[in-house]
Amino acid sequence: MFAGLPGIGVGTLFYVLMALWMPVREIGALARGRSSWTRWRLIGTQFCFAMGIVGSIAIADRVLVWVLGGGSPRAVGPARWLNDELGMHAPQSILAAPITASLILLAAILLAIEIVRVISRATKGRTRAAAAAIDTSAIARAGN
Within a 13 Å sphere around the CA of 121, how many CA atoms are in the beta-carbon half? Predict the structure, then answer.
């Protein structure tokens, strides 16, 4: 959300969340006997990349706070905008607001995708039923 600060956008956030979810999902495959060392090696690699991204964002946040001249900056999160008292208890981070905005945007995108998927399945079911009815009536007419 901030130009020049890679790693806090929606795409990176989605990648990190999926890479951190991979080991959890693979445990289910392991229980069903569908796991392999090759898959675990890929999962380990992606997990390490994701942790590297999280670590680099945390380090960048601390460096930015230090460069901007504050050992303990005031929170820049949405809580401070709503109420200064809430801001006192918010995370002491410069990147809290952009990361929160990315989380909200990612949640909205995933929700929209799920809504379209549900509507698509419902429409496809009605279309198939209508097509079957048309085929049946065409066969009945051809037989007469």
Answer: 5
- Residue 130: half-sphere exposure toward Cβ, Cα within 13 Å: 6
Q: Which residue has the tokens 């002491």?
A: 92
Tokens of 75: 């929170």
Q: The tokens 């009815």 sit on which residue? A: 133
Average pLDDT over residues 39-59: 92
Pick from 81, 106, 134, 114: which is nearest to 14 by CA? 106
Report which of 91, 92, 88, 54 is spatially closest to residue 71, judged by C-alpha positions: 92
Cα 38 to chain centroid distance, Å, stands at 25
The sign of the CA dihedral 66, 67, 68, 69 is positive
Mean pLDDT of 68-78: 57
